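During the first year of the project, the team set up a workflow for recording each protein of interest as an amino acid sequence followed immediately by a discrete structure-token representation. This format lets reviewers and collaborators read both layers of information side by side without switching files. As required by the reporting guidelines, we include two representative entries from the current panel. The first entry is reproduced here exactly as it appears in our internal archive.
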Amino acid sequence: MEETIYIRMRNRVKAPPEEKVLLKDIAQVIAPDEVLSQLQAMMIHQLTDADRNIVIVDVMKVIQILKSKFGGIEIQTIGPAQTIIEVTNKKKRVSLPFFLLIWFLLFFGSAMAIMNFHDDVSMKSVQEKIYTIITGKKETKPLLFQIPYSVGLGLGMILFFNHVFKKRINEEPSPLEVEMFNYQMDLDNYVIIHENKESMKQISDD
């Protein structure tokens, strides 16, 4: 019976600069025990300064490398056809003034957006009318509604984003996380398509 190697390419992986990218780093491999360790330790790509931040490894390149060493074994691929290697540099420490500047812009920008929205929908007058209907008294500052509303607005934002600082409230992803995931998927697809176009252009030029 002919032996078979099954390969499933990973969508995206991270690697430090100048790293030797092995098959086990970019793909899941199922193979006979006698060749599995050799397969996982095979070098697929050597990262260099010319690679910049993103490297695309196509499954055809992987098959070509495997065929050169294991020509008599059938290779079956499952899943995505490319793996994106993100070259990660050492994280730079964020300076305190820069952090405070970003916090200031986000905090007051969000506050202005909320206040402008409330002004557009006449929230103050609505609260005054509700207070008058319930209590029978007219009040220009119905704190009985405004304070709980403000607290509830903050709690609602925490529940919406599903985080208290770094602690997740439940296992469900927040709408922001879903949007970030969709954005990352679209970005990865663009990078793969753009890389394929560049590769085809180089082949035609040659």
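The second entry, processed by the same pipeline in the following quarter, appears below.
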Amino acid sequence: MIALRPALLLLTLGCFALASFIAHAEQTPAQDDRLKEIIAGDHRSAENRARDQYRNPLETLTFFGIKPDMTVVEIYPGRGWYTEILAPYLKGSGTLYAAEHPGDPSYEAVQRSLEAFDQKVKAAPELYGEVKRTKLTKDGDIAPPGSADLVVTFRNVHSWMGSGTENESFAAMFRALKPGGVLGLVQHRGDPKVPQEPKAGTGYVTEDYVIELAKKAGFELAEKSEINANQKDTKDYPKGVWTLPPSLRLGEEDREKYLAIGESDRMTLKFVKPAS
């Protein structure tokens, strides 16, 4: 074995790193095209595609740094809106864990959502057959500890606050990630001038409060994005965030007004699990 001088060794390692970076960079356009193709795919319902203007899946997932060979955990997939994109994108080269809600017989909306997701997965094994289903509980694992490259959670923080499980949920996401792994988070953004209600009954949570929760779990804030912002959202509605679409809890009352506002103003945050 040939021994390299320290300077030469550093130069050699630098060349390898540069080559790796260039190769990685060259893959990006093809991966973006694949993601675009899946987002535009016929397997997605017209109803789900109509919400792309508010949820911005291409820009959001790109911001989080998703790649097709990653191990990804999706928290609370609901009826599978994002699963329709993530599962086909990761199929064959990556892994997707769907960390479902633990269930609550007294909460009919959750039970209906769980049933709908179960039916979706079972009805299309060609799309969802490789999805690994787990549950997000107070003390369980959403994926093998230290296995995930990326954890994504969409509009769930207020639910955890409502059930008093926000600290356990952030801890579970931290535990699942590899050192250097990313937590991508989207949440209804509260008015920073309004004190945060501990149970987040309106569905809105201030950005500072979310960042505080993440840091408490050990995360570091890497970057913010305004991809999912909506300046029309005044955040002061009779039924909280559910006054707006897609819920429209007030029914026909001021329906056109709320449709004109669109879906909620949302923070989009990228956190990192420290390498150490």
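For the second entry, the following points were noted during internal review. The first strand starts at residue 71 and ends at 75. The longest helix spans residues 6-39. Both points are flagged for discussion at the upcoming steering committee meeting.
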